[in-house]
């Protein structure tokens, strides 16, 4: 599987459905060695506009637009390639939290979802519904893990 995805965007021209774009994603960044994040698409409002795309800065930890969404592709290398100093009994150095409802699908490889209390091994085909929780990802295998994530702006009630 490619580290940088191909993106196909459809639309309407002259009243007919067409392919408007078919190319490798331009918004891909390697934040750490072999950790490739591509923010494939975003929306700036709900309901979403079908006629508007705003290029967003690609950051390690996303800043989902207010009332908007992010569609994110991530290739996560094995931990040993990232050079992180993970200490037993200490919070994972990549622990973070977003104010979003996230739909995450593991496409290939495997990955541990680490919470403040507990963790679970995810494999290809697994789906995570993450509700604004503090978390980190740990790839303890020898192969990259590919995940897709859709982040939706949310509020804690």
UniProtKB/TrEMBL annotation:
Cupin type-2 domain boundaries:
93-149
User: What is this protein's record name?
Assistant: Cupin domain-containing protein
Q: Which organism is it from?
A: Sphingobacterium kitahiroshimense
